[in-house]
């Protein structure tokens, strides 16, 4: 049976892993390669490394770190942050990344999804969507760490991204990210039903029950989490053991 | 020395890294003489199966691969091109080493295509799968599958279909999953391949 995936996310700034609360108040928690290796040994199904400073400060990509990660990690990993062009994506592929995730660049230049997917395949392209609820009750797509609200709406944008060649959608609710209050499961289930590609849930896990809920009621194919792993509240193995007890298929 | 066949079908870096971690010597090549003199041959592949066959033909590698007598391992699309045909490339012949055809998964209400992520093997037999736990987990990414046949030495199930996860005919082996991305279980398979 296909397993639900547990994906630790490592937000990287200058080679160090950081995680902020609602993208503010960054705290350093460790070396990216070492943390990634530790998570892989602990049973992580995939890893995501996001160069979180890239978009905000216009930094380039972090190919040399990606190369070092590829040398030691024997599970799939995704990298993102500041990818604006096909060349940026090519460099990360050549450095050893299995997938790239694009967020702001896809919103402002949707053609980049098709450009990358047609060259390297849809399985290489994860479109990340950050969205927050507006006064009108709709989910508005945001960029630049949630600080810019766009005129795109979550569901239509996710569909468009799939049609353009995205292989997976990574959706983060900016209302929930970093709060440890759980995921908006109804929104995830609606997204899963509307898409033909996997949905990865991100942002908001406070405990294993939250993750279990988004993988069942929320129908998500995978859950991405940072805080609950980085700060040692749970190991990846503890999370997966608990999910298995709840009869959710996981790789253990 | 292991020959990793370079025929323009995807990035080889993770495979090189995986073999490197096992301390194996390898050469990325499309040179027939290197392939024919190697101790082991790996045929990787990500992308379209029809393009994969075309690329092998353009490089004059179809008959070269068929004539290799040392162990050969096809991975993912590299395995699929060793089959008779694929629905991804109608009217095109595969190398026909494995006596099976490659078909597309039907999309169902609960199972998305591609089949992507970690899934388990069943019905395992043979040396390539030595020393693995029962129902080990491997990482798959594919929209097409090889039907089970007499060459099937491990199966996997998705979307209500049991398909060939590992194939073997004489010195030819194929895995639908990516051993180079499958953690310790994947490493064990690559190690077994080196020790065949």
* SS elements, strand count of chain A: 12
The CATH superfamily of chain A turns out to be: Aldolase class I
Strand content of chain A: 25-35%
CATH architecture of chain B: 3-Layer(aba) Sandwich
Order of helices and strands of chain A: EEEHEHHEHEHHEEEHEHEHEHH
Quickly give the structural class of chain A.
alpha/beta
Sheet with most strands: strand arrangement of chain B: 2-1-3-4-12-11-10
* CATH class descriptor name of chain B: Alpha Beta
Note down, in words, how this protein is organized.
The complex is a heterodimer of chains A (252) and B (196). With 252 residues, chain A is α/β, with parallel strands linked by helices. The longest helix of chain A has 11 residues, at 154-164. The two termini of chain A are 13 Å apart. Chain A has helices at 32-41, 52-57, 63-72, 86-95, 104-108, 111-120, 154-164, 185-194, 208-216, 227-230, 236-245, and strands at 5-13, 16-21, 24-31, 47-51, 77-80, 99-102, 125-133, 139-143, 148-153, 168-173, 199-202, 222-225. Residues 20-24 and 56-61 of chain A have low confidence and may be disordered. Chain B has a single domain (2-195), classed as Rossmann fold. The longest helix of chain B has 13 residues, at 183-195. Chain B contains 6 helices and 12 strands. Chain B has 196 residues and is α/β, with parallel strands linked by helices. Chain B has helices at 13-21, 32-37, 49-58, 62-66, 77-80, 183-195, and strands at residues 2-5, 26-29, 40-43, 72-75, 85-86, 101-104, 115-120, 137-142, 144-146, 152-158, 161-169, 172-175. The chains are: A alpha/beta (252), B alpha/beta (196). At the A-B interface, helix 3 and helix 4 of A face helix 1, strand 7, strand 8 and helix 6 of B.
């Amino acid at each position: 049976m296909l397993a639900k995936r547990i994906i630790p996310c490592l937000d990287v700034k200058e080679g160090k892993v950081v995680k902020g609360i609602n993208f503010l108040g960054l705290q350093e928690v460790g070396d990216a390669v070492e943390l990634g290796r530790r998570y892989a040994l602990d049973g992580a199904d995939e890893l995501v490394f996001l160069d979180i400073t890239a978009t905000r400060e216009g930094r380039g990509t972090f190919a040399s770190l990606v190369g070092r990660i590829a040398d030691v990690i024997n599970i799939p990993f995704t990298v993102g942050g500041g990818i604006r062009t096909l060349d940026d994506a090519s460099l990360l592929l050549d450095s050893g990344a299995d997938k790239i995730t694009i967020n702001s660049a896809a919103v402002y230049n949707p053609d980049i999804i098709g450009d990358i997917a047609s060259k390297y395949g849809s399985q290489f392209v994860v479109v990340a969507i950050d969205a927050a609820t507006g006064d009108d009750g709709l989910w508005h797509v945001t960029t630049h760490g949630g600080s810019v609200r766009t005129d795109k709406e979550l569901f239509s944008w996710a569909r468009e991204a799939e049609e353009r060649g995205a292989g997976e959608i990574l959706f983060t609710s900016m209302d929930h990210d970093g709060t440890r209050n759980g995921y908006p499961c109804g929104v995830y289930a609606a997204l899963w039903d509307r898409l033909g590609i996997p949905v990865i849930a991100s942002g908001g896990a406070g405990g294993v029950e939250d993750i279990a809920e988004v993988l069942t009621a929320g129908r998500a194919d995978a859950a991405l989490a940072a805080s609950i792993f980085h700060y040692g509240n749970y190991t990846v193995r503890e999370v997966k053991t608990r999910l298995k007890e709840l009869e959710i298929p996981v790789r253990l | 020395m292991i020959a990793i066949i370079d025929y323009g079908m995807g990035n080889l870096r993770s495979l090189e890294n995986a073999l490197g971690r096992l301390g194996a010597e390898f050469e990325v090549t499309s040179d027939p003489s290197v392939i024919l003199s190697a101790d082991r041959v790996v045929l990787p592949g990500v992308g379209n199966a029809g393009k994969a066959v075309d690329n092998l033909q353009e490089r004059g590698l179809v008959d070269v691969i068929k004539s290799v007598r040392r162990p050969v391992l096809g991975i993912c699309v590299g395995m699929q091109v060793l089959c008779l045909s694929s629905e991804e490339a109608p009217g095109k012949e595969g190398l026909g080493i494995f006596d099976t055809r490659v078909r597309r998964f039907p999309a169902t209400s609960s199972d998305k295509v591609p089949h992507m992520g970690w899934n388990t093997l069943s019905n395992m037999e043979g040396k390539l799968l030595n020393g693995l736990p029962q129902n080990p987990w491997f990482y798959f990414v594919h929209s097409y599958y090889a039907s089970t046949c007499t060459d099937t030495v491990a199966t996997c199930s998705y979307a209500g279909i049991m398909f060939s996860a590992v194939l073997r005919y004489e010195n030819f082996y194929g895995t639908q999953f990516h051993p180079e991305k499958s953690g310790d279980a994947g490493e064990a398979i690559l190690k077994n391949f080196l020790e065949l």
